[in-house]
Amino acid sequence: MKKSFIILGLIAILFVSACQPPQEDISSEIGSTTEPVIDSYPVAEPTDQKGELQMLNFVKSELARETNPNVDEDLIKTLANNNTAFALAFYDQIRNEEGNIIFSPFSISLALSMTLAGAEGSTEKGMLNALQIDLPETDLHPAFNALLLAIEESQNRSDSEMAGSHFQLNLANSIWGQTDLDLNTAFLDTLAKNYGAGLFAVDFKQNPNMARLAINDWVAEETGYKIEDLIPEGAINAFTRLVLANAIYFKGSWMHPFNENLTIDAPFYTIDGTEIIAKRMKLLGKDLIYKRGENYQAVSLPYLSSDFVMTLLVPDAGAFHEVEDQLDQAMLEAILSSLWTEKVDLEMPKFDFDTNIKANDPLIALGMGDAFNPDVADFSGITDDETLMITDVLHKAKVTVDEEGTEAAAATAVIIGLTSAMPEEPISLIIDRPFMFMIRHQPTNTILFMGRVTQP
């Protein structure tokens, strides 16, 4: 039987709320000077014990997504480098929490970039700084679109037709707006052209819980029902005006599956040296992209679409905190640029966990405090009707790794690297201690998922 090996991250639900009490009058249309295209979307009515479906209006700009953006390759490379800087900066903000971590920096960055389309003044500047973005906003959105298209294209490049194998990548964006909020046409157009996002019209004022359930239902559907109930009860209220959501779902078979018959119970030593027993998988004598550093080892495992890989960074015994402290963009680039094809005997634990992150404090620490401050937040690019602020950024991700595959996307195109002319003894890498991992899209060098395993 094939195992399920998925990693999924839904992230970044951004709550943009009014800084003042809601108005009494409520109309039934989204106000916009753009002639909207309206469709319907079924959701369960929260007060209906029978679970009968209700229909939501789906409003989108007349403009279609630009599927062939004229974007210079240097802009895409700059954005990918900026996203890597953000991934490491955000990890640095949350790594003092105990235990395993999984998050999607790409998903958080994507949702916040959508929000940036409506930010102005110091709010915009602070968000750009927090996201480590060097591009002007006019270049950011087309560059993100080009980057998304490059990643989406890679899922069609499967290098094997192994029976029972699987590869799927789903990226989805959506906006949920108060039904009578007059949204600026330029904001809707930017999101439609560059992110393919339309707007679901919901009534936060009169029925915030129904809106919450509708968003959770969308998230669950887009992630194959692996992430459910993302938004807890009470997180959305009558002051909420807009929710921007991004979901990522990744499911992929390894190019080199582990032999399930070789999986054993074996010791794993946690950060404090405690011995626990974990399921240890074995992959013997395979040509893998590998590096031995001063106090760590690194190895990349390709998926069937070899544009995606999982890169493992394994500190030596007792050196986890030292390597974690040292890890920055320069170190990561040095590691990735010096990986080389070696014959490796790899042993690593299976793992399965999820992480819930309220990202407000990390993002404020990175410089976007104005966006959360009701006195100074400026999202006038979204609407002129009300003064808005971000109240919450919620992130949830889940990862499962087993013999057949793993969770997120990391990219390596050099699986066929040079091999030695004479047979050599395989390098042994036994991962029986905490390690970090990244799932990357190698053609663009984009980190889709990042995390650590301290207790499988």
Automatic annotation (TrEMBL):
Protein origin, superkingdom:
Bacteria
Any one GO CC term of this protein is:
extracellular space
Which UniProt keyword terms apply here?
A: Signal
Which portions of this protein are annotated as coiled-coil regions? none
Tell me the Pfam families matching this sequence.
Answer: Serpin
Q: Which residues form the signal peptide?
A: 1-18
**MF terms per GO, please?**
serine-type endopeptidase inhibitor activity
Domain named Serpin is located at 88-456
Q: Which family does it belong to?
A: Belongs to the serpin family.
Q: What is the name of this protein?
A: Proteinase inhibitor I4 serpin
